[in-house]
Amino acid sequence: MADGERPAPQRRDARRNREALAAAAAAVFAELGLDAPLDVIARRAGVGNATLYRHFPTREDLIGEVFRPAAAVLAEAGEEALAAEDAWTAVEGYFTRIFELVATSRGINDLVTMAIPTVPVLADMSHRNAATVGILVARAQEQGTMRGDVVATDLLFLLGPLCRAVPTADGLRPGLWRRHLALLLDGFRAPAAHPLPEPPIGDDRLDQLFADLWEA
Hints:
Elements: H1 9-32, H2 38-45, H3 49-55, H4 59-66, H5 68-83, H6 87-102, H7 106-113, H8 120-142, H9 152-164, H10 166-172, H11 177-186, H12 206-215
C-alpha cells in the first residue's frame, strides 16, 4: 500500500470483527469457562458463526488469542519469583499472583488447572509453571524453610483442586481463597513435617491428573 493510502474498508472491517470477537470471547470465557458455546461468542460480537470461524478456525485458536496476555502475566510472575532471594516468600507470592488472576475469570481458571497441549502459548505456560515451582521448591528446601520430603508435584497436585474452587470461594466472600491457600502452604513448611505415608506422583502423571479433574 502506498504512503498515505487508506486501508481498504474490507480490511478495516475484518480487523474490527477480529477485535470484537476476541473481546466477546474474553467476556464469555470469563463467565462460562473455556467450553462456552462459540455461537454465544459470535452473537456477543455481533457477527455470524462463519465470520468467527474465518478468523479463528478452531476453539484452540480463539483461546490462544484471548489468553496470550494472561500467559504473559503468569510468565512475569514466575520471573519475579525466581529473582527473589527468599524462596519461601517467593512461593507464597507466586501462588498468590496465580490465584489473584484465576479469581478474575473462569476461563483463566480453566487454563491454569487443565492441560491444553494443542495451544502452544498455553502449553508453554504450563511447562514454565511446573519448572518454576520445581526450582522454588528446591531452593526453599536448601534454605530450610520447606519440608524436605516433598516434590513440586505435591504442591501442584494440591493447589490444582484448590484453584478450581476459587470462583466458588470468591462467590461466598471475595478473597476467601487466601485463607485456604495459606492453610495449604503451611503444610509444606519445614516445622510442619511429619512422615508421609505414600510416595509422590511423577511429573508424567500431572497432566493426567488435571485432565481427570476437568472431566469429573
